[in-house]
Design a protein that fits this description.
24% of the residues lie in helices and 41% in strands. It is an alpha+beta fold. It has a single domain (3-161), classed as START domain (Alpha-D-Glucose-1,6-Bisphosphate, Chain A, domain 4, 2-Layer Sandwich). The longest helix has 25 residues, at 137-161. This is Polyketide cyclase. It comes from Actinoplanes nipponensis.
Length: 168
Amino acid sequence: MPDTHKRKHPGAGYVCLVAIVKRTVQASPEQIFAVLADGWTYSDWVVGTVHIRDVDEHWPQVGAQLHHKAGPWPLSLHDSSTVLAVVPNRSLKLRAGLWPLGSAVVEIILDPLTAGGTRITMKEDFEAGPLLFVRNKLNDLVLHRRNIESLRRLTDIVLRSTPKEVRR
C-alpha cells in the first residue's frame, strides 16, 4: 500500500493524499544532488518526461525552469517545471506542470544516514487542474508506482556516474 499523508486542500472541503516514496542509496547527498542539479537528466529518470527542451542557465536556483515534453507522441504535452525551494545537497522542491491536466508539487529530500548512504524521500501532490479533483486511491497507487520507478532510475544514474571508491 502506498505511503501517503492526508492533508486538507486549501479552499476545498475535502482531504487529498500526498504520495510519498523512499529509497536508500549507497551514495552521498552531494552525489545525488549533482544529478538533480543537472536539469538535462530529468527525462532519463522522471517517468513520463520524454524530452527536455531547455533548462534555465541558473538551474536549480529558486525560480529556474526546465522545459519538458511529457507523454507519447502525438499526445505529447509541452510544459515546464519551476524550482520553488532548494537547499543544496539536501532538498529540491518543484512545481511540475502538465497542462491542461494541471500541476503538482514535488519535493525531493536527501537525508544522510549514519551507517553511510542517503535516504531519498520523494513527495508529490497535485496542486491545480483537473487531476486535483479526480484524486482517488487508484490514481494515488499509479502515482506511487511511477515515483518508485523514478527513484529507481535516479539511483541507477547516480551509481553509474559515481566511481565505486567515492561512494559511501
